Amino acid sequence: MTATPAPTDLLLRDLQERPWAAYAACRRADPDLFFPGPEGTPDAAVRICRGCPVLAECRDWALGTKVRYGVWGAMTERERRRTLRKSA
Ligand code: SF4
């Protein structure tokens, strides 16, 4: 079984492209909070995001790259899809 990557494992893969990820509040958070699945709740991840100093950068990245799964920038998958549909 493969462990779920921490949100910042993804973000930190290319710090030159996303230097803001070094300041992510989710660096030490439980990755499962950010990928709660259909039975879980995103509330704990959203709370962490709301206190994150790079929330705006992360949200822009998540919307810009259309990242499909997980909570990013305090937004769930559904919220990102809705935002992207409205801006299309
Ligand atoms: S906004 Fe949330 S997902 Fe994005 S870097 Fe911050 S804590 Fe992590």
What order do the helices and strands come in, and which of them pair?
Blueprint: H1 7-11, H2 31-34, H3 43-50, H4 55-65, H5 77-87
The structure holds iron/sulfur cluster.
Iron/sulfur cluster binds at residues 7, 24-26, 48-49, 52, 54-55, 58, 72-74.
Low confidence ranges:
none
How many distinct helices?
A: 5
Distance between the first and last residues' Cα: 38 Å
Largest sheet: none
Mean pLDDT: 88
Approximate shape: globular
Q: How much of the sequence is in beta strands?
A: under 5%
Approximate helicity band: 40-55%
Number of DSSP E strands: 0
- Secondary-structure class: mainly alpha
Q: What's the order of the H and E elements?
A: HHHHH
Q: From the alpha-carbon coordinates, what is the Rg to the nearest angstrom?
A: 12 Å
Cofactors, ions, other ligands: iron/sulfur cluster
What brief labels describe this structure?
binds iron/sulfur cluster; mainly alpha; 88 residues; 5 helices; single chain
Structure, briefly:
This protein is mainly α. It is built from five helices and no strands.
Could you walk me through the main structural features you see in this protein, from its secondary elements to its overall organization?
The chain is mainly alpha-helical. The chain has a domain at 30-87. Helix content is 44%, strand content 0%. The chain contains 5 helices and no strands. The protein has helices at residues 7-11, 31-34, 43-50, 55-65, 77-87. It is globular, with a radius of gyration of 12 Å. The chain starts with 6 loop residues before the first helix and ends with a helix. Bound molecules: iron/sulfur cluster.
